[in-house]
Amino acid sequence: MRIAVTAKDTFLEADVDPRFGRAAYILLVDPENMQFEVLDNAENVNALKGAGIQAAGMISRAGADVLLTGFCGPNAFKTLSAANIDVVSDVAGTVKEALQVYQKGGFTRSKGPNAEARW
């Protein structure tokens, strides 16, 4: 399993970035050994539109099974669902803390988006 977590920096102790499509970084973590890959999301940070869809495609291609983030809009949510990636929204704290809560079953899979579409 690989867990994607939106992050404000490139390390596990970084704060979770509440934005999905416009997150500075997305860490792709193997929870078995806490090894991770940094996905630089700079291309989408200032995108006029489509940032969530592009970020969803990026984590899908990288092999993510789950996304932990603060907010996920409707277009990104649809794209992630189509790629069979579970979305967990309303996540806060550090990346490491979020992963620990997830592993203990402390989060519930989101049933839909929790943010408005940005146009």
Shape: globular
Derived from helix and strand composition plus strand pairing, the structural class reads alpha/beta
Please work out how many helical segments DSSP would assign: 4
Q: Spans of 5+ residues with little confidence (pLDDT < 50)?
A: none
Q: Please report the first level of CATH classification, the CATH class.
A: Alpha Beta
CATH topology: Nucleotidyltransferase, domain 5
The biggest beta sheet reads:
5 strands, mixed
Order of secondary-structure elements: EEEHHEHEH
Proportion of residues in helical segments: 25-40%
Radius of gyration: 12 Å
Strand order of the largest sheet: 3-2-1-4-5
Q: What is the average of the pLDDT values?
A: 93
CATH superfamily: Dinitrogenase iron-molybdenum cofactor biosynthesis domain
> Mind telling me which CATH architecture this is?
2-Layer Sandwich
Number of domains: 1
For the termini, the CA-CA separation is 33 Å
Q: Note the beta-strand portion.
A: 15-25%
**How many strand units?**
5
